[in-house]
């Protein structure tokens, strides 16, 4: 789909913000970190989710806490290599993120570290995003809190037993795919309601 630029005052596009571990790639588990490209495994359904989101005209932005560097568990070079692998795997399917926002700090008071909304707000400023029409998708309640504090709608991937304040709950990526396919409105409808 070709993205049509509107005239002199284009309306801001909505985005989908994706948490990384447990949404894009298989989660290494609580308290564990993906420390090398070899440990990074895409969740098989994720490319389809990203394809739908991009086809609908949303910006797609990764927002990921990676305090493994602050904890000395991995180097910045390893993190760059991991994200290089992520981009390569998606590029093979013709897919790409608009941006990857990473918080390396282990300090919970850091404004960019989820559940603080700093990474989302920074991306919104950078790309002029429409936050109330955007979505944050994550597998932790900290993702949901960050999304809500940025003024976005939220989807949590979690079991039925988990407590969540998310707008929507799905149990897995298959259900997420179904939801974005059937319930997300095209971004162009927001920006250009008359189809001009
Ligand atoms: Mg996660």
Give the CATH topology: Rossmann fold
| Cα shape | globular
How many E strands?
A: 6
The SSE string, one letter per element, is EHEHEHEHEEHH
Strand content: 5-15%
* Intertermini distance: 16 Å
The CATH architecture designation is 3-Layer(aba) Sandwich
User: Compounds present?
Assistant: magnesium ion
Low-confidence stretches: 4-9
Strand order of the biggest β-sheet: 3-2-1-4-5-6
Q: Radius of gyration in whole Å, from Cα?
A: 16 Å
Mean pLDDT figure: 92
Give a description of the structure:
The chain is built from 6 helices and 6 strands. With 196 residues, the protein is α/β, with parallel strands linked by helices. The protein has one domain: 3-Layer(aba) Sandwich (Rossmann fold). The protein has a 6-stranded parallel β-sheet with strand order 3-2-1-4-5-6, sandwiched between helices. Helix 1 runs parallel beside helix 5. The protein is globular and about 45 Å long.
């Amino acid at each position: 789909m070709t993205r049509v630029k509107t005239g002199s005052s284009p309306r801001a596009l909505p985005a989908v913000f994706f948490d990384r571990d447990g949404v894009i790639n298989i989660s290494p588990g609580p308290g564990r970190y993906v420390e090398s490209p070899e440990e990074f495994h895409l969740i098989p359904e994720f490319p389809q989710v990203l394809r739908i989101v991009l086809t609908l005209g949303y910006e797609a932005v990764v927002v990921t806490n990676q305090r493994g560097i602050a904890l000395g568990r991995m180097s910045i070079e390893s993190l760059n290599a991991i994200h290089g692998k992520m981009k390569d795997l998606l590029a093979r399917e013709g897919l790409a993120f608009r941006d990857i926002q990473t918080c390396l700090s282990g300090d919970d008071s850091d404004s960019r570290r989820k559940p603080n909304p700093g990474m989302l707000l920074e991306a919104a400023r950078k790309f002029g995003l429409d936050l109330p029409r955007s979505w944050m998708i994550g597998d932790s309640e900290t993702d949901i809190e960050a999304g809500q504090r940025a003024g976005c709608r939220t989807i949590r991937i979690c079991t039925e037993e988990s407590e969540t304040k998310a707008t929507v709950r799905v149990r897995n990526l298959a259900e997420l795919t179904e939801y974005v396919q059937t319930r997300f409105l095209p971004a162009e409808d927001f920006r250009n309601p008359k189809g001009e």
